[in-house]
Amino acid sequence: MSTNVIELNHVQKNFGRTQALKNVTFNVPTGEVVGFLGPNGAGKSTTIRILLGMLKRNGGEATVFGQDPWHNDLQIHPRIAYVPGDVYLWPNLTGGEIVDLLLRLNGQNHTAKTDELMKVFEFDPKKKARAYSKGNRQKVALIAALSQDAELYIFDEPTSGLDPLNELTFQQEVLKLKEAGKTVLLSSHILSEVEKMCDAIVIIREGEIIEQGNLDQMRHLSRLRVQVETDAAITGLDKQSGVYDLKFTNHDQTAATFAVDHDVLGQVMAALTPLGIKDFQSTPPTLEDLFLHYYSDKGATQHVAQ
């Protein structure tokens, strides 16, 4: 039996002459939270709709729980909780009625967990849906999805429209799913959101997967940010291979900031040590650094170093 809940192998999708997906290949292992990163229009939602059986792929293979979602969607859907990026509701129903309806449509019931979620998301279930803001419409879908005891949770830009406190609430709920051993595919362009919750990330650009792996594996591809102070003036560091964006922060040139590639950090330390290091601070690259590394054009490396 496969250890992957989701498997995509060379999936392609065309809309007329536009190729939206080009050989998309990645897996979502059982019990992991995988972040699916890319800006709007990169192909995230198209990929998710193929996984849900809403779109038919033009090439490649896709399975969810080992089944083809296009042909076996009725068997797959009861095992999935899904939140789209744009939620449309029945305007004459209250939010609470819609939550209950969504639960019943997936064979689930309103429980104490549902009430708890309404409380933590500060959601008023008595208002008509027509009066809801985008954020409150998102809350309806999130509460319905998180109320379910599903095997796979798929979130497609789920926090769009939410305020920062509710974004934090969502993150805390996903971490609970992670602790419970649930499988989550989280599509997002909010880097801090993914960084806090995910075991691994998949980066998509213009319909192609350009990188994937866990955060530790991918952080070596970006640069450390360094702040240093020495007794003697810092000289020659601007000529050191692997050092970028060197800036002095005092007139004596004994204090500086710069970016450095991981594999030359030892050489840089060897060059600085004879100068008498008084203070040295290094900051590991963030997911945002990685994102800029993969999405910027030819000036990406310089951009990341700034």
TrEMBL record:
Superkingdom per UniProt: Bacteria
UniProt xrefs under InterPro entries: AAA+_ATPase (IPR003593), ABC_transporter-like_ATP-bd (IPR003439), ABC_transporter-like_CS (IPR017871), ABC_transporter_ATP-binding (IPR050763), P-loop_NTPase (IPR027417)
Keywords on record: ATP-binding, Nucleotide-binding, Transport
Family matches, as SMART domains: AAA
One Pfam family hit: ABC_tran
An MF annotation (GO) of this entry: ATP hydrolysis activity
Domain ABC transporter stretches: 6-231
Family statement: Belongs to the ABC transporter superfamily.
Protein name (database record): Putative ABC transporter ATP-binding protein
Organism: Schleiferilactobacillus shenzhenensis LY-73
